[in-house]
Write a structure and sequence with these properties.
Layout (H helix, E strand, L loop, with lengths): L3 E7 L4 H12 L3 E6 L2 H10 L4 E5 L4 H14 L4
Parallel strand pairs: 1-2, 1-3
Length: about 80
Amino acid sequence: MNTRQILFTETDGEALQRLLPELAAAHDDWEIVLAGTASAALELLSQRDFATVIASFGADRENCEHFLQAVQQRAPAA
């Protein structure tokens, strides 16, 4: 079985942290990694291949947009 690696980036609050146990239990073919900052997420992207990147920046849309542009440059396949 191929494990898909999914990077969750949560910079505002703990919403994704509350969801992680449920997601992990429901999908044993996913490896879920959580990053608390955009810089930590980008560092992880330089070290590993992720199938999917999910970002939650709360109301900080501008920094989210910059983050997603950086993701697109570093990991265009994600």
